[in-house]
Design brief:
- This protein has helices at about 10-20, 30-35, 50-60, 60-70, 80-85, 190-200, and strands at about 1-5, 25-30, 40-45, 75-80, 90, 105, 120-125, 125, 140-145, 150, 160-165, 165-175, 175-180.
- With about 200 residues, the protein is of the alpha/beta class.
- It has one domain: Class I glutamine amidotransferase (GATase) domain (Rossmann fold, 3-Layer(aba) Sandwich).
- Strand 1 (about 1-5), helix 1 (about 10-20) and strand 2 form a beta-alpha-beta unit.
- It is globular.
Length: about 200
């Protein structure tokens, strides 16, 4: 069973529907016992970094998610869920993230011809040999909605990058922890393949 973390963030239901479409059992939950007993966890979401961390802490989910990540079982962050895995964000100065991964969330710099937030499709440059992108072609397009991007301090954890004014670390893979800045559940067949790869781990 896959536990999808319910912390009142946006876009959680679409992830649940995508997992069900792929034929896997999923449950929306914030119950510690259900989370810890699950085969894998997905932390999705859209919204503000600071507000989201506040909700995670109010539900006691910050400690549960750190414990789950340390268990060795597969853990996937999506969009805001990716950002929360890191140490901090320029969106919410002074607010600590989960710190499960080393790095920082930075604002996409303003540049002529680029709109912020980035909303739309962009291609990925993939690091060979990752579990998340097994069977996905380099240069595949996925769907992004974000004003902030992840800058990992661990280059060997970066599974995919894209270009949008700067080099965006679009996905990470470190041990049992995976994360995507883009939305696999909204990225057509390519996104479903990425999500299925995670569900098979």
């Amino acid at each position: 069973m896959t536990a999808i973390i319910d912390y009142d963030a946006g876009n959680i239901k679409s992830v649940e529907k995508a997992v069900a479409f792929l034929g896997y059992e999923a449950v929306l939950t914030r119950d510690r016992d259900v989370i810890m007993g699950s085969d894998r966890v997905i932390l999705p979401g859209v919204g503000s970094f600071g507000d989201a961390m506040g909700r995670l802490r109010s539900y006691g989910l910050d400690t549960v998610l750190k414990e789950y990540a340390a268990s060795g079982k597969p853990f996937l962050g999506i969009c805001l869920g990716l950002q929360l895995l890191f140490e901090d964000s320029e969106e919410s100065p002074g607010v600590e993230g989960l710190g499960i991964l080393k790095g920082h969330i930075l604002r996409i710099p303003k540049e002529e011809g680029l709109t912020v937030p980035q909303i739309g499709w962009n291609d990925l440059k993939l690091r060979p040999g990752t579990k998340l992108f097994n069977g996905v072609k380099d240069g595949s397009y996925v769907y992004f909605v974000h004003s902030y991007y992840m800058k990992s301090e661990e280059e060997d954890a970066v599974a995919a990058t894209t270009e949008y004014g700067v080099t965006v670390h679009a996905a990470v893979e470190k041990g049992n922890v995976f994360a995507c800045q883009f939305h696999p559940e909204k990225s057509s067949d390519v996104g479903l393949k990425i999500l299925e790869n995670f569900l098979k781990i």
